[in-house]
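Protocol step 4 of 5: obtain the predicted structure for the target chain.
Materials: sequence only (see below). No template structures provided, no constraints applied. The aim of this step is simply to have a reference model before the mutagenesis design in step 5. Sequence pasted as it appears in the construct record:
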Amino acid sequence: MEMNQMMERFRMDGKVALITGAGRGIGAATAEAFAAAGAKVVVTDVLEEEGKAVAEKICNAGGEAIFEFLNVVDEQQWQNVIDKAVATYGGFDALVNNAAITTQCHVEDISMEEWRKVMSVNIDGVFLGIKHGIQAMKPGGKAGRGGSIVNISSICAIIAMHGSGSYSAAKGAVRSLTKVAAVECGSLKYGIRINSVHPGVILTELVKAGMEESAKKGIFKSSEEALALYESQHPIGRLGEPIEIAQAALYLASDAGAFTTGAELVVDGGFTAQ
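Step 4 output (structure tokens):
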């Protein structure tokens, strides 16, 4: 295969991608990366102003995108957004379950309210995305042309990080659910690949807020101390950028990842290699 043919496999021309939590951070970078690769993008988030701004940015750059409000824990809203994607673009070929929240707290201090909130968004929301994504993308579904589902998990699903008990538990569940769904879709010949991406510490608004929270709760002396520690734990010497996770998701969603399913793609600057 010639180089230009190989590079074409990373293209998303003629394809449609639905991305959750796309109003900022990794989700926004993913929406923009997919659009740059030729995909039409359904930008979704509970952050309406930010989500609309991402869709507008894509359109201003010559791409095509729409914004739809989506609270990922609301099953009816999932059905509504999928119906809109089908009505607007005839279906979709890629779904990126990125929406997530975090909290910093030692396990012994986690309240049930806090635990349930993190679990609701970070695993219930992903479950609903996988469920309705499969139903729509499988043969005979509303989209019915197969495709790829990419779930954004975390290295917290693999290793322990202080103060991340509820977040780690939810992201660990994402990791396991991804594998089960991938095997089921493969054995049922649905033509749907499902994989997870496991970022290291990525410099996003969510991570910055988490570092500030950890300082307030005494897990670290300051957010600067947290940042310095996280940087030192990455052998590559820095935190990751959202675009670096977006590029991993693009590989898994595109034809370049056609033989990849049930996998966990770790993008962490060497954090978990130690």
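Step 4 remarks: Residues 130 and 149 are 7 Å apart (CA to CA). The chain has a mean pLDDT of 95.
Proceed to step 5.
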